[in-house]
């Protein structure tokens, strides 16, 4: 039997999805509103991609920067629409693989001319310009989106502890279907409300921020899981285990002087933290001196870890960062935290063994009080890490370290915040 030459138009669709290049966004272990499409024809236009995918729901944005490599990122408003699109695209891919398998089985079993290959229908759902592609969930790069900090989840502060989850759901479902309500351990005044659709989250924040519930004015912000966009993920069959992070610097602490731009976070108006930081603590003595020497707020990394199972004994996650240079902006602080989280997560991913069982480093809240008269910060800030382990890593990285920025001689101090 002679050698059968595969038709040229099968070359892209017949092969399994190739490994993705080094600097693609990391895949997501959980459903997200963002899909990374691979094997996309490089001649396809943004309007075509948008039109093909809007059959599943409204598309928030399409990023075509990697089109020449066959990569396109699509952002949906609603996570359910992204799930439907992913299922249809992957189903088309599997059907194509089945058709190709049947085709070659027939070729091998017959000595006569091969049967004609039947391509997928040109107008089927889940195809891009009539071509089979591959899709996977990916972590959204929020800096590339208008209002990118809105990923559908609101964090509520200063909430009365008597507010029950059913009552809270009833209030917020007036703006659209709520996917999930979450509580923070040991922080009953704080709740997370996740919407399926980011537009409903935006409406809820605009309408409810500052509203009084059970006699308390609540403060609402978009939840911002910092440090997760660039972190290492072993999240899927196409993750090649690398990112665009400079691995030559893995053994170095990220510099406090980095000036990379990051999305900003609006300073909150939390009364219970204003009471803690209502005065400038740039000078010694007074209330600050009491805080620094009060053992209740000091972080002891040795006492915090239970030796038997290396778990964290102290469950507090909100820290106060003191002696911040007054010219240090909120963007610089966010960048410092992001770099720290990237650094820690890279080391966790590459460490092997039991370290991979530890929670990754990320944060969901930052507050840097600003003196608007003098146009500078007041020398301290608050950060809530998402796990006690991440809190200890932050402490070990920055406590008693020089800031090395603006020729400052200040030494960074990290303690637990009074209110958790």
From TrEMBL:
Protein name as annotated: RRM domain-containing protein
Species this chain originates from: Erythranthe guttata (Yellow monkey flower)
Example GO molecular function: RNA binding
Protein's UniProt keywords contain Cell division: no
Keywords associated with the record: RNA-binding
Keyword Heme: no
Entries under Pfam families matching the protein: RRM_1 (PF00076), RRM_2 (PF04059)
GO cellular component: ribonucleoprotein complex
Compositional bias ranges of the Basic and acidic residues kind: 268-277
Lineage: Eukaryota, Viridiplantae, Streptophyta, Embryophyta, Tracheophyta
Domain RRM: 33-111, 152-225
Extent of the signal sequence: none
Region of interest (Disordered), residue spans: 233-294
InterPro entries linked to this entry: EAR1-like_RRM3, Mei2-like_Rrm_C, Nucleotide-bd_a/b_plait_sf, RBD_domain_sf, RRM_dom
